[in-house]
Each structure stands twice: as structure tokens, then as C-alpha cells.
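Can you give me the bound-state structure? Components:
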Amino acid sequence: MAAPDAAKAPAIELRGISKSFGPVQANKDISIRVMPGTIHGIIGENGAGKSTLMSILYGFYKADSGEVFINGTKTNITDSQAAIAAGIGMVFQHFKLVPNFTVLENVILGAEDGALLRPSLAKARKELTALAKEYELNVDPDSVVEDLSVGHQQRVEILKALYRRAEILILDEPTGVLTPAEADHLFRILENLRREGKTIILITHKLREIMEITDTVSVMRRGEMTATVKTAETSPEHLAELMVGRKVLLRVDKVPAAPGAQILEVENLQVVDSSGVQRLKGIDLDIRAGEILGIAGVAGNGQSELLEVLGGMREAKGSIRLNGQPLPLSGAGADASARRQLGIAHVPEDRHREGLILDFHAWENVAFGYHRDEKYQRGLFMDNDALRQDTQAKMAKFDVRPPDCWLSAKSFSGGNQQKIVVAREIERNPDLLLIGQPTRGVDIGAIEFIHEQIIALRDQGKAILLVSVELDEIFALSDRIAVMFDGQIMGFRDPATTDEKELGLMMAGITDTRDPVSQEASQHG
Amino acid sequence: MDFLTLIQILDSTIRLATPLLLACLAGLYSERAGVFDIGLEGKMLAAAFLSAAVAYVTGSVWLGLLAGIGASMLLALVHGLASITFRGNQLISGVAINFLAAGLTVLVAQSWFQQGGRTPSLMGGARFEPITLPFADALSGVPFLGPIYGDLVSGHSVLVYMAFALVPITWWILFRTRFGLRLRAVGENPAAVDTAGVSVTRLRYAAVLICGVLCGVAGAYLATGLQAGFVKDMTAGRGFIALAALIFAKWRPWNALWACLLFGLLQAVALRYQNLDLGGIVIPVQVMDVLPYILTVIFLAGFVGKAIPPRAGGEPYVKER
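Here's the bound-state model for the whole set.
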């Protein structure tokens, strides 16, 4: 580990940076020093102001006040071009690549050497080979970016920055979309970069990554920098407390499951999507009462389709039995409303697209899917008073803040939006709860609360199907784990006897866990 | 059909395909950069009128051409302002330009020339005359090759040769130059261009203005090359056929050439055989006239595979973190 040298000027120094968007102050008087050749973590909940700060550093926003020093020199970063010139490279959470361009074309875009492409391409090809050797950044320069895996696309982003001679690399939530093996490889790359003297800023909300790779870490809360500490001198519990402002339980307390009767049986479920691609290739699974089945997998391997089929949002072939009764899989009776009547509640993966209507009031959102319920009817009309009272009660029980049923859904934070959706679905007392990415974009405090609710529902003897791309979450909640890859279930595991490495290999499509070498090979294939 | 008739039809195909090709390439630059443009028609019409008017007044077709390009670029600038700077709806801006041009050309033409919304007929130096290529006369006696070279290849106005030369030039610009790389990138993912430190706004304006220049040439060719003067609504939907050809061509220059030649051929056949008699069954000219549109619908319905437009097309670029 490179020890920060006190004699050297910091690679980046921010002094008193403030930035407001209207009445919201996203950054309040932030000062930070990052020494060259170190990995500096910035951790904080959603909306804490991490991304705003980095956008200021990359010239996307202009700070209201404050100064930026790069290598000891005061630098005025007015736009991305100035940031690049100052040696700053940024790897965004959502990649900024041209999907139908080759790797080479993406790398040279904006950094061409002349009006003609040929010399630039040749030069980039040579340089990419060198970089690949130096940092384990192997990507085929001629492949089209949209054909690459997410992990490789991320390498292209890093290559882009290095090709522009970046000495300071900012990565915004880089592991959110990676498999554990890909994340490990990324960390190896980052360590190589640090060894070569590059400075890295890692923005994340994952405490584990901070502990694993950073030298120093800054914690942000509500626009303020609450602490900067040496990673070696802190603990996850301490960081979580700094992030949330109170003590947080990082582990989920739960008693062993007491599985009861078979609630859900799925046999040979197959789905072909509208473009003819088979998304589910024969899924078999079952869930008992009082049991949480966690489905792990990299996003896009059929988990979403499985949830949609069970929730009545997509037609399929095969068989589904709920409490022993077969469910129709197409035509009448295969819709979301019918499924809800039968006792299947669904917290969809994407709350903005499928869980809520953001412009509607909270109480209207609480009605969705259950608006035909007896208790909400008054003659020909809906009983909105009853609905609002009901919403108010749910908001109190689930600690939704602010507890005002007249606010539109979009004015709540991510965590509180999710609480509204979870409250709506759980309070209906379903036999089976389908829950996808329950804590995506949700802050730590709310994660804790939502996890408790899921466990409580299990302990009431309900069956729960949990889909999550966060392995930590799968481990924390599941009584059994199934891993999905390419529309199939690679196998079931007991969370007590498996580990992240085994699941990671299964997520990459490898069931033979004795041979970890073949995994790298398959990723390059 | 004898050989000479074939040559004549193909000859007229080339002339009729020229304005389509120019407009199609114009649209290609704009749409590849992510700015949809259904105002090709309006820009051509404005250019047709102003080029004819200036050519008539000055007697110089070259000044007419310049004026036509200027008129078209002005409208392109309006489209750019609306859709790039003010992030408005590109379709609405295009429709507005079409209406504006349709009304304004006739109104101004009537006020200037009092000939019922047309310009006086152009003669002599106020028109683009056919160019006779070298050896065309010498070769005219040679069977087969003579007519092909003399009538088909030679004998068009300079704008025709320019339009066809633009196909390889456009291909080269798009796929071999820095400008082309950035242009294609900005139509696929403007955020990638922006974060690479290149101005999305400047690139898109450049594309829209190139579109204006080419539409200007297309309009000027209509009024001073293909015909002798401006008539009300003389573009007759060519801007829209060019758009159809562009989709049919999947936004690629060489495909655009073939698509425009095909549509040109259909127009040429419709022009020559008013009512096509196929052994007792008479196909009325209207059927021939709508054939390009019907073909477009059939093509787009999936006959030629999927036409994937530039991914960021039609969407104004809003910077986010």
C-alpha cells in the first residue's frame, strides 16, 4: 500500500466547495485532500451529494463557491475539456459509450490526433495493447461495444481515461453492475493503477468495497463532509454510523426458517420475448410457507421475466401452482389483477416504472392494484376518504417521511418511495410476496427497515420470492438461494454452506466450482 | 421496349433522382447527428423559389444557386435554434418550416412577379445547362456504348454530377474523418461526446447547416436545372420521398444512392407512361405516382430487415451529471 507522502502536494484538494440547486444545498462547504498514488473512497447515502461533488470536479456543474487545486495548482474547471486537460478521468455509473462503435473508436472519440481517423486508430491500437499489458485491461480493440459484457465496457471507460493521460481517476459506483468476479478484476486493475502512481477516487455506498481497497475514506451526509478517516483505522459499523447519523445494524437478525406447506410450485416455465429471444428456459422451483427463496444473478439473466410472469405481467408456458391450484399462464385470468386477488403481492424491480406513478399523490399510489377492493368502494364511486385514512395509517406504520398522503410520489426520497410500495403490498397480507431489488437506490436506514419487514412477513408464515443483484442482500435474507444464469437456474444453495465465490461462479454460468481458472476464460470468450 | 427507350427512361431517372439524392444526403447528415428533419421539403421549396427569383433578376444561375442555399440555410438555422438551442420538438419545428415555406414562397413570388405565385421562365445563363462530356460526340456513332455515354452519362447539368460525387464523399467524411466519427457519435450517444470534451451543440449545428446547404442545392436544381423557373409547390413531396429513401437506406450513403435511383426510376416510368397498359389491364398514372410511397410502407414493414435509426435521434440533448 502506498503511504501518503506528507511532503508532496495533494493530487486533488477541494476547499470550501458549496453548490445549491434552488433551495436544496447539495454540497455545503466541502474540503477534501487526496494524496497522489492513493485510493480515496467517498461514501454516503443516496442524495448525500457525492455525485454532485464529482460532477463539479469533472466540470459538469459550476460550484457556487470554493476552490479546486490539482497537484497544488489552483485550477478552474469550467467544462469536461478542462477536466481532461487537468488529468482527470471519470468513469460514470452509466457508461458514456457509443454502443455501435468499436472499442478503438470509442477510445479515440474526442481525443483524435488529426482530421483523419486512420493515424489515430493505429496509434490507439498500439497504446491499448500496452495499457492492457500494464494494467490487466484486456479488451479486444475491434469488438463493438454493445457486444461486450458490462465488465468489459467498464474497462473501455477506464481505457478512455488512461488514453487521455488521466492521472486522477474518478469511479462512480463502479461495481453496481458487475458480477463478484468482475468486481474482483476491477479491484486488481485499480491496485495496478495505484502502483503506477495514479490517484483514484471511488464513490460507492458499499461499505465492504471501501474496507477492501481504499487507503482513506470520506463520509458524506446531507451535503456535508462528516469525516475523513484512514480506512485502516475505522470499521464498517463506524462508517455506517457516520453515514446515517445513528447506530445501524448491518446484519439482519432472524430466527431460522420454519418452512410449512408448499405455497408456490413452478415447473418448466418458459418465456419467449417479443423479439423471439428465449428469456426463461425451463424454470423449476418451489417455495414453502415461512420461507424466503433468494434469486441471485447478474441483471438480465431472466430474473425480471420470472417476476413478471409470476406477477401476471407477462405470458409464459409451463405450469405454476399456488396452494396446489394451477394458475392460468395466458389469456383471461393471467393478469396482474387476477394474481393479486389470489394472494400474490408484487413489489416490482423498478419502482419508478412499475411500482408508482410519480406524479400522483401518495394515497392514489397506495390504491393501485387494490382499487377494486371492497373497503375502498362507496356505491358507484371510490371512497377516497377511506383510502386516505388507510394511506395515513400505512405511512405511520412504515415510517414514511414525511407522513403526508397528499404529497406526490416523486417528492419522496428513494427509500420512502420504496416504503410506500412495500407497505401497499405487504399490508394486503399476501400468501406469496414477489419482491425485486427491494433496496435498490434506498439509503441504509431504510434498507434496515425494509429488511425487517420482509423477515417479519416470513415469520408470519408467508412465502417470499426475493430477486436481488446485491449478493449481500441475498445472503442476509434468504433461507435458500437459487442462482439464475441465461434463463436457467444453475442450482440451489444453502446460504449457511455456500459463499460468495461459489455463487459468483454460478452467476457467470459455471457450475463446476473446482476450476476457478475456466471462469476468466469464459468471460473473454 | 427498345434500347433507346430504355436509355431515355434511365436518363430521366438520373435527372429525377438528383434532387432526391441531394435531399436524402442532406437528411443523412442531420439525422446521423441526432436531429430529425422533416423540413427537407420546406427547405427545398424555399431554395427553389429564391434561386429562381435571383437567377431571373440577375441573369446568373450561380448567384441563384447561392441565394437558394442561403434561403435553405436560414430555415435550417431556424430548425437548429428550435431543436438544439431551445430543445423543442424536432417534428413540430419541421412541420412549421414546411408550412412556412409553402405559404411564403407563393406570397413573395406573387408580390414580386405578379404571375400567380410563380417566377417568370428562366432562359440562357439563368439556368443550369447540360454539360457535354469530352468525346461524347466522337463516340456517338459507336453502337451501344455511344448512346450510354453520350445520352446517359453525358448531358446533365453540373449539379447532377455533384450530387452523385457527394455519395462517396459523404461516405468518406462519415467513416474516415474525425468530424464523421463525432457526427455519428453525437447521433448515437451525445453524452459520450459531451464527456469526451466535445461540444454537442456545435456538432449538431454543423450537421443541420450542412443539411441546409444540400437542401439548397436540391431546391435550386429543381427550379433552375430540372425545370425553368419556380412553380407553386414544385417540390411535390420530394422531401418526404427523400426521407423515405433515407430510412430505406438505413442512413448509409451508398444505400441512399440506390434508394434514390429506385424512386427516381419509378418517377421516370410514371412520367413516360401516363397510363401503363399491361396487356388489357390499364394501370392509371396515379398508381405509378403513389408507388414510391407504397413501396416505402412495404419496405418499412420489414421487407428489408430492421432499419435502426440513430439512437439519440429526435431527442434534444439535456446534460445530466
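A couple of observations. Chain B has a mean pLDDT of 90. The interface with chain A takes residues 175-182, 184-185, 188-189, 191-198, 311, 319, 321 of chain B (CB under 8 Å).
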